[in-house]
Each structure stands twice: as structure tokens, then as C-alpha cells.
Design brief:
Layout (H helix, E strand, L loop, with lengths): L9 H14 L6 E7 H9 L10 E8 L7 H11 L4 E5 L13 H6 L3 E4 L3 H10 L4 E8 L4 H14 L4 E7 L3 H9 L7 E5 H7 L6 H6 L3 E4 L3 H17 L4 E3 L11 H10 E3 L2 E4 L3 E4 L3 E3 L8 H4 L15 H5 L23 H4 L4 H7 L15
Parallel strand pairs: 1-2, 1-7, 3-4, 3-5, 5-6, 7-8, 8-9
Antiparallel strand pairs: 10-13, 11-12
Length: about 375
């Protein structure tokens, strides 16, 4: 299949692996963070880490939109779902994210009208069909998914649909990266940049990383050869003493992003003063809320939302995983008390979560069966 098979060529993968092995310095340990959860899953699904030299370590970042939602925000969603007359619509992976007492799926089982949707347009469709009910859409995701929410609200406003509202939990990618770079706990040599977010925002927003922190960034696609080539490009920059933003994913990502998507985002959303991230705490201007022009669609203005901050369970170490401080298998409950079927933390629930990637692809310990390298 075109645009798939050529990016999964095993022979080319071995050639790239050889070039990576030739470019690294013996005795130097490299730490490269893949920001996006989609990259994490590609790495372990295709065994990319097994092709890398033992001194090249991949660290997992906060680029999973479900994983970064704090427990208190889930509780707020459940509270809205239990409001009389409310239909609460959300994406499927949010149904099983644990709140402090239950999940949205538990709330549904006990009588709340919680419905899985594939798009915010599905929520708009439900609102049209159920004019006597209030429909609340739990909007999550980075800049990748925010345009679809914005366009849905523009349509709802144009059609004068009065019973649709949005619990906006969209987040932005730059502030958490800056928070990680400011953290004394983590030393990184470079970033595999988030390809999906970059399709909207472009490569320009990531220039602060080399400019202010001296770390190379390569915007990457999601096929195995994309990720391998991106790692090679980062290591080549380090070997040549360069530090810049490069775009490996040029077939999809324009340097300046998608102007129409950015335009609609600016119309519908504005930055929140602060927002809580799982594992990272409150980060200034790191999430979106509706502008005054779309205030009538804001569920947090239409309903009374508790807004209580809830600490993660002590056994759960999702926060440390999201910051790249530990690997999933180092969490005490990984693969035992916490599994995809019975998740304690968000990183095990989401299809983009690092813990789910390790669990699904059998990475249960430090040493793999291939070459005895660290994972």
C-alpha cells in the first residue's frame, strides 16, 4: 500500500540502524524524548528500540491527551453526566479513565446517559435529535483535535442549536515541554517532535527549544522508518554540533502549519490562565477555553462544575511516566494491579499511553530478549 509499505521496509530499517550506530559516540549516553504517544506505540509495536545502540535511550513524554487529564477533571465530567436531563458525550478512551471513585463507564452503568462518539459532530447530531435534553461534549486533545471542536461549535452557532455545550479540556503542547525543560529531574539531548500537533501548528512553535535550551527537535511521522530517520537526524545534529528544528514529516507537516485551522482556533478559543496536568501540576496558559463569543456553549458556565483538585492514587506513578522520570515497568502496579482491563492510571487506559504500549507489546522488564539492551 502506497505511503505505508515503503515506510515499513525492514531492509531500509537495518540500513538506518547501521547509520545510527556509526554516528553515536562510544561512552556517551543519549536521552531522546518522543513527545507523542503515537510515537511510543510505533516504537514498541515495531521494535524500533531493539535496533538502537544500547547507549541511545528513548524517554516518553506528555503527548498523550487522555493521559494528562487530571483525576479531578474526570470527576467534573462525571458530575456533569449525572446532572438531570444531560446527555454526556465523549470519546471511547475517556469512558474508562478513573476518577476518584468511578469512571464514566461506571456512571453510565448506574444510570447516567453517557454516550461514546467518534467526533464532536456526533454530539451536535445528538443535540439536534434530542432538543429537550442538554448535550455536553467532553472535548479533549491537543491542537490536533481542537479544530474539529471549533468547527462543530461554529456550525452549532450558525444553526442556533441551544442545547449543545462543551466541557473544554483541550491542551496545548508548548507549555508542558517548557515545564519539562525547566525541570531539574530530567536531562534530555533532543526531542522527536509531535507530528500530529505539527500538522496544525507547524514547526515554528518548537523553535524555542533549540534557541533557549540548546536541544535539537525533529518533527516526525509515525511509521517505523519515520521514527528511525528522526532519531538519526537528532543524533546527526548532535554529532555535527548543530541545534535546530528539522521537519522529517514534510509530506504532511507544512512549516507554518494549517492557516485555516489556526484561524478557527483563534476565533473560538482563548488560553486559560492556568490548567492542571497530571504529573506536572498547574501550568500557565497551557489549555484552551471558549471565547466570550462562544460563551453560550461553555458547559462550565452553563452548569455548576465542582472543580475540585484530586490527588492521584499513591500506587499510581503515571505522573512520573509522563515526565519521563521512570519507565512504565518501574511502576509498582504495572502489569499486576494495573492492566488495560483494570486500569489504575490513565497511561494504561489510553491507546496512546506509554504503559499501554509496554503492556500490549510485552515490555515487562528492563532487559528484552533481543540483545539484552535496556528499555
Amino acid at each position: 500500500m502506497r505511503f505505508v509499505d515503503e515506510y515499513r521496509d525492514a531492509d531500509l530499517g537495518r540500513v538506518l540502524a547501521g547509520e545510527i550506530a556509526a554516528i553515536v559516540e562510544p561512552g556517551r549516553h543519549y536521552k531522546v524524548m518522543e513527545v507523542c504517544g503515537g510515537h511510543t506505540h510505533a516504537i514498541y509495536k515495531y521494535g524500533i528500540d531493539d535496533l538502537l545502540p544500547a547507549n541511545v535511550e528513548l524517554v516518553h513524554g506528555p503527548g498523550c491527551p487522555v493521559c494528562v487529564i487530571p483525576m479531578g477533571r474526570v470527576d467534573d465530567g462525571i458530575a456533569l453526566a449525572r446532572e438531570p436531563g444531560v446527555i454526556f458525550a465523549c470519546f471511547g478512551d475517556m469512558l474508562r479513565v478513573p476518577g476518584s471513585r468511578e469512571t464514566l463507564l461506571d456512571a453510565k452503568a448506574s444510570g447516567a446517559d453517557v454516550r461514546m462518539v467518534y467526533s464532536p459532530l456526533d454530539a451536535l447530531r445528538i443535540a439536534r435529535k434530542e432538543p429537550d435534553r442538554q448535550v455536553v461534549f467532553f472535548a479533549i486533545g491537543f491542537e490536533t483535535t481542537a479544530p474539529s471542536t471549533a468547527l462543530t461549535l461554529k456550525r452549532a452557532k450558525a444553526e442556533r442549536v441551544p442545547n449543545l455545550s462543551v466541557m473544554c479540556s483541550h491542551v496545548t503542547i508548548v507549555p508542558p515541554l517548557r515545564a519539562l525543560l525547566e525541570s531539574p529531574d530530567l536531562r534530555l539531548d533532543g526531542f522527536v517532535g509531535p507530528g500530529h500537533v505539527a500538522t496544525v501548528v507547524g514547526a515554528r512553535p518548537f523553535h524555542f527549544i533549540p534557541a533557549q535550551y540548546g536541544k535539537p527537535v525533529v518533527i516526525s511521522g509515525f511509521e517505523p522508518l519515520d521514527v528511525l530517520q528522526s532519531i538519526h537526524m537528532i543524533l546527526r545534529q548532535l554529532a555535527e554540533g548543530r541545534c535546530e528544528v528539522e521537519n522529517q514529516y514534510k509530506r504532511v507537516v507544512p512549516f507554518d502549519g494549517n492557516p485555516r485551522a489556526l484561524e478557527v482556533l483563534a476565533e473560538v478559543f482563548e488560553l486559560r490562565p492556568h490548567f492542571e496536568w497530571r504529573g506536572l501540576g498547574f501550568i500557565s496558559q497551557s489549555a484552551l477555553r471558549l471565547t466570550d463569543a462562544y460563551a453560550d456553549f461553555d458547559a462550565e458556565r452553563r452548569f455548576s462544575v465542582p472543580g475540585v483538585r484530586v490527588a492521584d492514587p499513591k500506587a499510581c506513578q503515571c505522573g512520573e511516566v509522563l515526565k519521563g522520570v521512570i519507565k512504565p515497568w518501574e511502576c509498582k502496579v504495572f502489569g499486576t494491579a494495573c492492566t488495560p482491563e483494570h486500569a489504575i492510571g490513565t497511561c494504561m487506559v489510553s491507546p496512546e499511553g506509554a504503559c499501554a504500549a509496554y503492556y500490549n507489546y510485552g515490555r515487562f522488564a528492563r532487559v528484552t530478549s533481543l540483545g539484552g539492551r535496556n528499555v
